[in-house]
């Protein structure tokens, strides 16, 4: 008899093989228990061959030894594991109720001894390196509530397919659509098939992957009784899961007025007891501080904070992720990141009119839709102190400190605008009373790092062009010996760091340099990192980024309940003044530069207006 490890083969006779209990101290002391069905083996002619990968040989040999003991009828009691110990398997295999297991095998590995990739590999392939066929039961199920809506069709399902095609979803994932429409599985597949495409740089086997993804997509007609509908969803999920250990994600793409009922019924009737459950909520998260607090308390009565992911697709942009990378991984920037060197920070966001459906936008306005989440989260990430780690909760803690230190907005520091209604139905649909479609404001953070530095916000709908960027303007050089060469407009000679997402993603640094030639003439030029020239790849959609974060349990780009409350505290005074008709709303032309009042607001705070 022999045992083969990759290229190593050890032969021995069964009659001469004797087992003893292992000594207390052992090189392979990690507790690893694997039942025999996790081995891919072949026997013949008194020779036993087990295909075991060369990596992590120590742990795998211990599993092999236990398998041999079981086959030879030896009794062996492995050390007991500590109670209530959680195991985190990145890439969707985290089980918040304990170790990951199924009905026929139990794999227990201490967290500090196995990397996430190794854990995933062990669970998917056993010890042989060959995929384990466990009936193709899904290890992850994702349910889209409101599956026939525009957001689901245009964004959510395409993002899920892109993740599946790129290998970020398990091959045996289960995708479930839930809505009130009376359609079948095939109908849903036909609806979403027209929106699914492979990226330009990922075209191999596109049709095969598309067919495989659609075959894993199922539909549940929830009707108008969500409790019954969620029970049906749970039953269908359990049928597909087949009793295996499976985690679930629920994406609630539903109107605000239906959210509470859907969330309550989901909590009581659709959560799995054999893995973790994560729930994605779409913005906006309430109308003001009071309504948001009631909504938060209701949600927290049904779910734990760690289960809740409040999504804002704008926070999934590469620009946002670059904020912390640029600052904390480059020594050239971190020492300058304070009031000593920075004069002002500008957050600019203008969107096309077609981004927001009229009936949605008219009910909330730009403050509740964009400023409350995206803009304030951007400022928090930019201004926060270095977190103690990249863990989501550590980053959220630092963001919260910034939000709590932002002064409450006063009407004198805010400019509101609304684009003029025209004969086009597309424009008229969005205009409703005093609902603002433009917002400009000056914020101040009252701490030692940012005291006196204005953070200027300019965001609007239907402006001259689609633009998303952050501009960090530095102070003038004290006692600049070249001031005579700069000219009369010293503001044009300041250094500036520009982080641009739209129209062309780039990082720009504006510096002063000498113009070539005789004489001494200075010019302000840009050092340009243009992403499309540097990186020959298609940038994933923001929904792909955020959905992958949910699967991985990375919550740093999702607002926690206390962050949500802090953001409403900043904006509620202005919202109250708007509701009382105490604030004027300036009209502006579609395709223009916005209200004139914004220019005066910039000048009031001593900041040069940046031309579009």
From TrEMBL:
Record keywords: Carbohydrate metabolism, Glucose metabolism, NADP, Oxidoreductase
Glucose-6-phosphate dehydrogenase NAD-binding domain sequence ranges: 144-322
Entry EC no(s): 1.1.1.49
A Pfam short name: G6PD_C
Pathway in which the depicted protein is active: Carbohydrate degradation; pentose phosphate pathway; D-ribulose 5-phosphate from D-glucose 6-phosphate (oxidative stage): step 1/3
Record-annotated Glucose-6-phosphate dehydrogenase C-terminal domain positions: 325-609
A GO molecular-function descriptor: NADP binding
Reactions it catalyzes: D-glucose 6-phosphate + NADP(+) = 6-phospho-D-glucono-1,5-lactone + NADPH + H(+)
Chain segments carrying region Disordered: 79-109
Name by which UniProt lists this protein: Glucose-6-phosphate 1-dehydrogenase
Source organism: Glycine max
GN (gene name): LOC100811075
């Amino acid at each position: 008899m022999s045992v083969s490890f990759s290229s190593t083969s050890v032969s021995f006779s069964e009659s001469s093989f004797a087992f003893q209990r292992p000594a207390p101290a052992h090189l392979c002391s990690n507790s690893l228990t694997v039942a025999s069905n996790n081995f891919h083996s072949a026997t013949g002619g008194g020779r036993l061959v087990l295909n075991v990968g060369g990596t992590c040989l120590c742990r795998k040999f211990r599993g092999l030894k236990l398998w041999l003991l079981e086959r030879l009828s030896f009794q062996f009691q492995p050390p007991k594991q500590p109670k209530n110990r959680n195991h985190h398997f990145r890439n969707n295999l985290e089980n918040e109720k304990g170790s990951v297991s199924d009905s026929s095998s139990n794999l227990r590995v201490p967290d500090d001894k196995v990397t996430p990739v190794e854990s995933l590999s062990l669970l998917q392939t056993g010890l042989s390196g060959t995929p384990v066929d466990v009936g193709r039961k899904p290890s992850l199920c994702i349910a889209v509530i409101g599956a026939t809506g525009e957001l689901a069709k245009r964004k959510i399902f395409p993002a899920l397919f892109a993740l599946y095609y790129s290998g970020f979803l398990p091959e045996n994932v289960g995708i479930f659509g839930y809505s009130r429409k009376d359609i079948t599985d095939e109908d849903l597949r036909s609806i979403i098939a027209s929106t699914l495409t492979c990226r330009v740089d990922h075209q191999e086997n596109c049709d095969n992957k598309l067919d495989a993804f659609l075959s894993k997509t199922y539909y549940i007609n929830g009707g108008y009784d969500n409790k019954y509908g969620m029970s049906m969803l749970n039953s269908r999920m359990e049928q597909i899961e087949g009793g295996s250990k499976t985690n679930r994600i629920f994406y609630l793409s539903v109107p605000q007025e239906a959210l509470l009922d859907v969330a309550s019924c989901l909590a009581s009737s659709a959560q799995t007891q054999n893995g973790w459950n994560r729930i994605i909520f779409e913005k906006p998260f309430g109308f003001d501080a009071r309504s948001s607090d009631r909504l938060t308390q209701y949600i927290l009565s049904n779910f734990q904070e760690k289960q809740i992911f409040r999504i804002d697709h704008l926070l999934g942009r590469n620009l946002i992720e670059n904020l912390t990378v640029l600052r904390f991984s480059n020594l050239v920037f971190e020492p300058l990141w304070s009031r000593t060197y920075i004069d002002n920070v500008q957050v600019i966001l203008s969107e096309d009119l077609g981004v927001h459906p009229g009936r949605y936008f008219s009910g909330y306005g730009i403050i509740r839709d964009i400023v409350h989440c995206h803009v304030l989260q951007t400022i928090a990430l930019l201004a926060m102190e270095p977190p103690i780690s990249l863990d989501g909760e550590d980053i959220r803690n630092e963001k919260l400190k910034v939000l709590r230190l932002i002064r409450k907005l006063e009407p004198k520091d805010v400019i509101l605008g609304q684009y003029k209604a025209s004969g086009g139905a597309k424009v008229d649909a969005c205009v409703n009373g005093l609902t603002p479609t433009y917002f400009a404001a000056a914020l101040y953070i009252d701490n030692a790092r940012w005291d006196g530095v204005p953070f200027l916000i300019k965001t609007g709908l239907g402006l001259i062009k689609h633009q998303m960027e952050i501009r960090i303007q530095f102070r003038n050089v004290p006692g600049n010996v070249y001031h005579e060469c700069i000219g009369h407009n010293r503001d044009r000679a300041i250094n500036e760091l520009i982080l641009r997402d739209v129209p062309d993603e780039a990082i720009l640094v504006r510096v002063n340099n000498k113009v070539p030639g005789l004489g001494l003439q200075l010019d302000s030029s840009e050092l340009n990192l243009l992403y499309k020239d540097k990186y020959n790849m298609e940038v994933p959609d923001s929904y792909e980024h955020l959905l992958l974060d949910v699967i991985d349990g990375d919550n740093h780009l999702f607002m926690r309940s206390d962050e949500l409350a802090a953001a409403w505290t900043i904006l509620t005074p202005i919202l109250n003044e708007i509701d009382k008709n105490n604030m004027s709303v300036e009209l502006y032309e579609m395709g223009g530069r916005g209200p004139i009042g914004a220019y005066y607001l910039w000048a009031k705070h001593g900041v040069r207006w940046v031309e579009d």
